[in-house]
């Protein structure tokens, strides 16, 4: 799964194209960030599709004959519940694995977009840092520490959600 992600990252990095606005000699920051955002989303989508084929193709459901097990020796309610609980953890391993991969990809994309928001010059956090420079170095340090704390909140929640 990791090799698919790395491979798609390399392929998409080699195919990044930046569109320039009319009359511009070189691309601006907005065009560069847009190209990188499209690249990142493309990597997540294609990696997700390839991992779906991999996970669902390699890890199929095992056929478990509950009726045969039921007739053979599971007659008491407690034993039946324990057996069903153990068997339910074995059902659909490919789907569960793909769900984990997909959740990880989406969390990684979320972290990437939040990082872009807090570091790009076109969004509020960076503009507030620029306004803080009018008052000297102290407010810049305080503003930087505050924005640094804010910027870690969403990635922290996303990483904790994957655990």
Concise structural overview:
The chain is mainly α.
Would you give an account of this structure?
By secondary structure, the protein is mostly helical. The protein has 7 helices and no strands. The two termini are 18 Å apart.
The oligomeric status of these chains comes to single chain
Report the count of strand segments.
0
Q: Compute the average pLDDT.
A: 81
Structural class: mainly alpha
User: Helix content range of the residues, please?
Assistant: over 70%
Shape: flat
Number of helices: 7
Q: How big is the Rg?
A: 25 Å
| Secondary-structure element pattern, one letter each | HHHHHHH
Question: What composes the largest sheet?
Answer: none
In the predicted model, the low-confidence regions spanning at least 5 consecutive residues are none
Report the sheet-strand fraction.
under 5%
**End-to-end gap:** 18 Å
């Amino acid at each position: 799964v990791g090799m698919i992600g790395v491979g798609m990252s390399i392929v998409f990095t080699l195919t990044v194209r930046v569109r320039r606005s009319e009359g511009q000699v070189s691309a601006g920051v907005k065009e560069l960030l847009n190209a990188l955002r499209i690249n990142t989303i493309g990597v997540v989508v294609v990696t997700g599709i390839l991992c779906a084929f991999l996970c669902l193709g390699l890890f199929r459901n095992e056929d478990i004959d509950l009726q045969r097990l039921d007739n053979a020796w599971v007659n008491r309610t407690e034993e039946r519940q324990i057996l069903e609980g153990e068997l339910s953890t074995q059902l659909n391993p490919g789907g569960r694995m793909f769900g984990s991969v997909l959740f990880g990809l989406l969390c990684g994309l979320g972290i990437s977009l939040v990082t872009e928001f807090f570091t790009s010059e076109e969004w509020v956090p960076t503009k507030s840092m620029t306004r803080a420079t009018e008052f000297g170095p102290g407010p810049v340090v305080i503003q930087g520490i505050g924005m640094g704390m804010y910027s870690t909140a969403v990635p922290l929640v996303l990483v904790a959600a994957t655990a």
